[in-house]
Write a structure and sequence with these properties.
The chain is mostly beta strands. The protein is 5% helix and 26% strand.
């Protein structure tokens, strides 16, 4: 278990080492300068990190389109290079993601310790691993029904997360997805779920009961390790 934990930390730390180049920057509706990379051969852009921490703060609004050099681009991705789009922007308190975005890349909001509110639109079909890693102010989140899997370490260390809504479209919950979510007291697993990966709910010390749906065929190693408050668990015949 210690090796897995160390690996997760090392991966998150390594993501800080290099950044995406950007093609242009434009002021957002909330007055923040945001940085974009053109997705080759398209009129779409990905929103990227310019290479330093805390470049935005407060309430951030991402536009659905941006215009640069007489061309209008659709904002379709929070793009991942080696640093998440808003990684380490500890001053962000809330963020509005437009319906144009389809992908939230790895580490997009990692270590955004001040982030307390985020709405994910139904246009998003992929949320990559580590996206909300270490968002210690996040208390609740609703995952849209356009999502089929919860990525690796997605909410790792979200110590104030008490409520998560998982839709009936989700089939897998990834490695360490809720690791160290120490305030998570209950969670409803959807009937679409087939697999709970290793370390999924490790150290969720406030979790007191859980019902695993009949659709689940696999529960990974240490899935509920360290859940000291767990009083009741229902495991199906499947």
């Amino acid at each position: 278990m210690k090796k897995v934990l160390l690996s997760l930390v090392l991966i998150a730390s390594t993501m800080l080492s290099t950044v995406w180049a950007y093609d242009f920057s434009v002021a957002s509706p909330s007055g923040h300068t945001l940085y974009y990379q053109i997705i080759s051969g398209t009129t779409n852009v990905g929103l990227v990190n310019p290479g330093y921490n805390d470049y935005v703060s407060g309430e951030v609004v991402i536009p659905s389109t941006v215009t640069y050099d007489n061309t209008t681009y659709n904002v379709t991705e929070l793009k991942y290079g080696s640093v998440g789009t808003f990684e380490n922007c500890t001053g962000i308190t809330s963020i509005t993601i437009p319906n144009s975005v389809t992908t939230i890349g790895e580490n997009a909001f990692a270590f955004c310790s001040g982030l307390s509110s985020v709405t994910i639109p139904n246009s998003v079909t992929a949320i990559d691993g580590y996206s909300f890693y270490g968002c210690t102010s996040l208390t609740s989140i609703t995952i849209p029904n356009s999502i089929t899997s919860i990525g690796e370490a997605l909410f790792y260390g979200c110590t104030n997360l008490t409520s998560v809504t998982i839709p009936n479209t989700v089939t897998t919950i990834g490695l360490g997805a809720f690791y160290n979510c120490t305030s998570l007291s209950s969670i409803t697993l959807p009937s679409s779920l087939t697999a709970i990966d290793n370390y999924c709910f490790t150290n969720c010390t406030s979790l007191n009961s859980i019902t695993i749906p009949n659709s689940v065929t696999t529960i990974g190693n240490y899935a509920f390790y360290g859940c000291a408050g767990l009083l009741s668990i229902t495991i199906p015949n499947s």
